[in-house]
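Appendix B, record 7
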Amino acid sequence: MSGTTGPVIVVVLAIIGAWYIGAVALNTPFQLDTYERADRTNVPFSELVSDTLAQERPVLPAPHQIAVEIWETTVEKKITSKRSLIYHSGITLSSALLGFLIGTTLGILLAVGIIHSRVLEKSLMPWIIASQTIPILAIAPMIIVVLNAVGISGLLPKAMISTYLSFFPVAVGMVKGLRSPEVIDMDLMHTYSATRVQTLWKLRLPYAVPYLFTSMKIGMAASLVGAIVGELPTGAVAGLGARLLSGSYYGQTLQIWSALIMAAFLAGSLVALIGLVEKLALKRMGMTR
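Structure tokens (predicted):
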């Protein structure tokens, strides 16, 4: 066991252990009520624990129950099935990726404009920061309604919510990155009579690449959250948000938790993918971190 994986495994085991203890504690009241209605008394503790971890609609599902639910809704279901978690994940992922692409592009363009214009910096930055103080649950229905009113529906409204959440970290990170070159490097570009475009392309952007990737990791996770939230006020019938909504309506806690775990898995995978691209890009550029 290596020095890096050891602590991770210990923490994971501790979380799983605490999870099982919490599941038993939270599911026990319902199980005791079930025993009482069946006129059963003096139930062995081992049987109580076993029954609390095997309830059909537990308050807190045990990890193995969630694992079984994910297996049944991924491996044992066709991808095109409306009950397939992969099918719903694909719908949410498409909205998140489109929103992330738009948000990243918008964030980079805003950052470039801000560092080259004092007026844009003074006028845009306060609004960019203020925009993130509005709860996404409050603004999501407004975006959906407004876009539907002008005939825009389907994928784009959800993508716009992802854009709203993902552009901010990219814009702020890129502003910091584009301003990170040393004064001596900027003076050297002036000595060469470099234009603003040349300075941006040959000096500012290479310096900003590490900041960009860091911001993209945050923006990717936020984009996925935005896509899920965007499915909630629309009454969507597909997507991870729809799975969460229908699960809450019918008390299907296993469905809710499986959708949450899948969302976390998608976010972690996408962030890891961006990290891999970052390593390759920085290595190609001769930059080490």
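Remarks on this record: The mean pLDDT is 86. The chain is about 80% helix and 0% strand.
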